[in-house]
């Protein structure tokens, strides 16, 4: 197993896109979220499963 035991599989991250913009996502390991810079949304990861629902996403603050 790789060093991302609590993280997300890098191969999965390569194929996931933001459901709103269809743009790329970046992984925030500290917050356990997938970040869509284009949509300014953060999608949570719960129990190693990305929750790719717009209604579940957290809006990013200007500081994020």
Structural summary, described in words:
A hairpin with a 4-residue loop joins strand 1 (26-28) and strand 2 (33-36). This protein is mainly beta. Strands 1, 2, 3, 4 and 5 form a 5-stranded antiparallel beta sheet that branches. It contains 1 helix and 5 strands, in the order αβββββ.
The run of helices and strands is: HEEEEE
Class inferred from helices and paired strands: mainly beta
> Tally of extended strands?
5
Largest sheet, described in full? Answer: 5 strands, antiparallel
Describe, in short, the structure shown.
This protein has 64 residues and is mainly beta. Helices cover 9% and strands 27% of the residues. A hairpin with a 4-residue loop joins strand 2 (33-36) and strand 3.
Can you tag this structure with a few keywords?
mainly beta; 1 helix; globular; 64 residues; 5-stranded antiparallel β-sheet; N-terminal domain of TfIIb
